[in-house]
Structures are given as structure tokens and as C-alpha cells.
Amino acid sequence: MVHADDESAVGIAVQNNFGLTIGHLALRYSQEQVRANAFVVARGLALNSLGIFVVAATLASLALLRVMNGLGREMLAVEAALRTDDPGRSRGTLRGPFRAALRRFGETVREAETELTEARAQLQRGAGT
What we know:
The protein has helices spanning 31-83, 99-128; strands at 2-3, 7-15, 21-30. By secondary structure, the chain is an alpha+beta fold. It has one domain (2-128). A 3-stranded antiparallel beta sheet has the order 1-2-3. The radius of gyration is 38 Å and the shape is rod-shaped. The mean pLDDT is 84.
């Protein structure tokens, strides 16, 4: 392999089936042409990478917006369920992957409110006697 500023050459020995060298083959090429082709390939890779990144970022953003909107709707349903006095009526409004966790949260809050109400009632009965 021989390198020069504007041209380079590469060579290989040609052998027969018995391993004897019967000649040499040399190839001379322009460095400028190699650089130009490398630039074209690098530019193509960069543009393809940019396109893939834009598509992936867009899809990820859309997926995040969808999940956040769904979670927001579920939070509004939980808030509505907490504000209502009839817990059975709000059970059908909860949907989605967070349904079970949000339902448990709502039930836990209702149980805590019930216990607080009972504790207040006991305190008022104790204060009244």
C-alpha cells in the first residue's frame, strides 16, 4: 500500500494452486475520488440518522401525550369519584391501565374518611358526656 497526496496504490501477489507467485496485481486510485465518495456516504448516513431521530422523537412524544392524557382523564375520574357520595356509581368511569391502582387509592381514601368520621363522632360523644 502506497499513499501519496493525490493518488495511492495497493497491490497483491497472484499465486497459483501450488502457492507459487506468478505475478502481481496493482491498483492505483485517486484520493480525491475516495474522499468525495466518503463525503457522499457520510452525508447520506447523517441525513438518514436525522430522519430516523425526528421520526422516533415524534412517535415518542405522541405516545407520551397519549399516556398523559389518559392518566389525566383517570385522575379526573378519581377526583369525581372522591367528590361523590355514591362510590358504586363512579366505578364504571375508571378505565385504562391504572384502573386497579386508582380504584384502590379511591377506596383507601374513602376508608380513611370513614375512620375520620367515626373518630370525630366518638370525640363528640366523649366531649358531650
